[in-house]
């Protein structure tokens, strides 16, 4: 499956902060075919550092999609049955307008002139894309982590559009711990002299700061167990300690590698803006209570969490489930066993596939 | 909503589900109603009720693997403990709350029953009868905690922590002012009401607050 990222332009997007972005570009990919009744459309929302390329092989760089194990013919999100849409998020750096995009008013990149965005802003832009594609109802909106926040926001803001939602390894609001980890990432970026108050486009980007932010992120995506299995205390290409500050341990070398790799594909300012949007997200605060956020509509829900995910622990999914049940909504929930920590939704797909496959098939049969 | 008395489906139901208490329960449930099944396993009963009676079903099950299988077959099941999970439902959210062969395993059976009657218009409770003659005889003969076909476990590994008889349940219902709409007794097959507390291995009660 060779895929191509396409672009669509909208005139303007009003934002929660009061400002309006204009014009605005969205990068997106689609897979499968929209049926005549337009009843088989699924929107997949990506996590913090994802992009529109969710599945297949990219026509431009030959890389597989970030959720290729879950999306494709015969897979959980079966592209031979469903029409899949995935868009790069607002504020991102992979084709959709973000801080690295050119501000038409100045002819230069927005940088910190980019308005602070929210998860509801991201979803409002996705709604414009879905409307432009002629889709009136979405069989499912799904995603893991920040993608799951967007799925929850979709179900709350557009209950008439959302037939079902599958929020995975996610929360309706960040805890102090989640905000704290994001803040460490932001501080690492802003402490890098190359960050230059966000004004580094055309020059040297804050590569060291962004790499450290990514290293911290990576630690939170794994579990104690998965790190023990993957690295243990093994040394990297040496028999004894170097008695210096080179990467002695494999885990050090791995984190350094992932940090440096990340710099090549991600913009530091996007990291600041998107993590801030995640921290601001609070479905309960806006509606009065979490239960009230789901007052309207008939959407069906499947929530999934993972046993070893300590970044988005199961209690946060249960909190959402409890709110849905107090509104007497149709909700299924399971905590899948996995050692992979938060990364489980990306890498541990066996049982996840079985559950989602059945949930989608029954939803399609009953509601579409 | 009166309980259905249509028994023509009975042999068919029994064949499909292979469990006599399920067969009775599926008779009691009115078509197109809303049902919550506590300890629903892999969702067999709810799936059957959805297809054959147009029932809108939900389930609660603590075993993760069973929950996965239930969701995979299209049943909306929540992974959790029934003694905690009932609390978040509003009053009278369901027509029927089903508790099949689990009451004797709960820590606080009375609280579970009261919650069932708060959340549902009807409670359907099926439980193994500790008053069955085989239990009484086993205890009398051996002087030990009885082990029978219905209660096969050693005392130290039994999940059954609150034994009750049909008489116990009837007295509790009377004391609490619950209305027993139907009582059905099973001993391999359906049996009559004659000396039911001695003769029935399993009882199914349809109760209303």
Write a short abstract of this structure.
Chain A is of the alpha/beta class and 368 residues long. Chain A contains twelve helices and 16 strands. At the A-B interface, α10, β16 and α12 of A face α4 and β3 of B.
Structural features:
heterodimer; A: 368 residues; alpha/beta; Rossmann fold; Rna Polymerase Sigma Factor, Chain: A; 2 domains; eight-stranded mixed beta sheet; two-stranded parallel ribbon; 37% helix; globular; B: 209 residues; 24% strand; disordered N terminus
Fold blueprint:
The complex is a heterodimer of chains A (368) and B (209).
Chain A: E1 2-3, E2 6-10, E3 13-14, E4 20-21, E5 24-31, E6 41-44, E7 57-58, E8 71-72, E9 77-78, E10 83-87, E11 102-103, E12 108-109, H1 119-132, E13 140-144, H2 146-157, E14 164-168, H3 176-191, H4 207-221, H5 224-230, H6 250-265, H7 268-280, H8 283-287, H9 290-293, E15 300-306, H10 314-326, E16 331-336, H11 344-347, H12 350-367
Parallel strand pairs in A: 1-7, 6-10, 6-13, 8-9, 13-14, 14-15, 15-16
Antiparallel strand pairs in A: 2-5, 3-4, 5-10, 11-12
Helix pairs in contact in A: 1-2, 3-4, 3-7, 4-6
Chain B: H1 10-17, H2 20-28, E1 34-38, H3 44-53, E2 56-61, H4 64-72, E3 76-79, H5 82-85, E4 94-100, H6 109-119, E5 120-128, H7 133-142, H8 166-176, E6 179-187, E7 189-191, H9 196-199, E8 202-208
Parallel strand pairs in B: 1-2, 1-4, 2-3, 4-5
Antiparallel strand pairs in B: 5-8, 6-7, 6-8
């Amino acid at each position: 499956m060779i895929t191509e990222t396409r672009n669509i332009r909208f005139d303007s997007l009003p934002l929660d902060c009061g400002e309006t972005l204009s014009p605005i570009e969205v990068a997106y990919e689609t897979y499968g075919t929209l049926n005549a009744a337009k009843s088989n459309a699924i929107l997949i929302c990506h996590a913090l550092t994802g992009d529109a390329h969710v599945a297949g092989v990219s026509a431009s760089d030959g890389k597989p999609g970030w959720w290729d194990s879950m999306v494709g013919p015969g897979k959980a999100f079966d592209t031979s049955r469903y029409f899949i849409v995935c868009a790069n998020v607002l504020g991102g750096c992979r084709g959709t307008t973000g801080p690295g995009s050119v501000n038409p008013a100045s002819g230069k990149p927005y940088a910190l002139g980019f308005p602070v965005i929210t998860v509801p802003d991201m979803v409002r832009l996705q709604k414009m894309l879905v409307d432009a594609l002629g889709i009136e109802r979405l069989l499912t909106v799904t995603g893991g982590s920040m993608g799951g926040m967007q799925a929850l926001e979709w179900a709350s803001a557009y209950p008439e559009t959302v037939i079902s939602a599958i929020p995975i390894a996610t929360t309706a609001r960040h805890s102090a711990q989640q905000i704290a980890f994001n803040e460490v990432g932001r501080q690492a970026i802003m402490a890098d002299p190359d960050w230059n108050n966000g004004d580094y486009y055309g020059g040297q980007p804050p590569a060291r700061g962004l790499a450290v932010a990514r290293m911290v992120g990576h630690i939170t995506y794994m579990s104690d167990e998965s790190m023990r299995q993957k690295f243990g205390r093994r040394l990297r290409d040496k028999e004894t300690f170097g008695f210096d500050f080179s990467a002695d341990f494999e885990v050090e070398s791995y984190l350094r590698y992932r940090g440096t790799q990340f710099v090549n594909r991600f913009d530091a300012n996007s990291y600041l803006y998107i993590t801030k949007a995640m921290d601001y997200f609070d479905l309960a605060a806006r509606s009065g209570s979490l239960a009230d956020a789901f007052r309207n509509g008939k959407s069906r829900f499947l929530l999934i969490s993972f046993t070893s995910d300590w970044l988005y622990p199961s209690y946060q999914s249960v909190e959402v489930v409890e709110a849905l049940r107090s509104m007497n909504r149709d909700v299924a929930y399971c905590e899948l066993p996995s050692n992979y920590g938060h990364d489980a939704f990306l890498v541990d797909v066996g049982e996840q596939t079985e559950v989602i496959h059945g949930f989608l098939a029954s939803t399609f049969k009953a509601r579409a | 909503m009166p309980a259905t008395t249509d028994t023509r489906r009975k042999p068919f139901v029994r064949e499909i589900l292979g469990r006599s208490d399920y067969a009775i329960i599926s008779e009691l449930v009115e078509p197109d109603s809303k049902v919550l099944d506590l300890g629903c396993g892999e969702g067999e009963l709810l799936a059957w009720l959805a297809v054959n009676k147009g029932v809108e079903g939900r389930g609660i099950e603590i075993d993760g693997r069973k929950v996965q299988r239930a969701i995979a077959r299209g049943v909306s099941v929540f992974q959790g403990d029934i003694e905690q999970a009932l609390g978040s439902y509003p009053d009278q959210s369901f027509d029927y709350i089903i508790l099949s062969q689990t009451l004797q395993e709960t820590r606080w059976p009375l609280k579970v029953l009261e919650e069932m009657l708060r959340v549902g218009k009807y409670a359907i409770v099926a439980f193994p009868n500790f008053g069955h003659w085989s239990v009484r005889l086993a205890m009398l003969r051996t002087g030990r905690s009885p082990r029978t076909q219905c209660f096969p476990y050693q005392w130290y590994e039994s999940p059954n922590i609150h034994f009750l008889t049909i008489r116990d349940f009837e007295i509790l219902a009377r004391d609490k002012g619950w209305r027993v709409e139907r009582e059905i007794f099973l001993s391999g097959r359906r049996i009559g009401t004659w000396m039911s507390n001695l003769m029935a291995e399993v009882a199914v009660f349809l109760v209303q607050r």
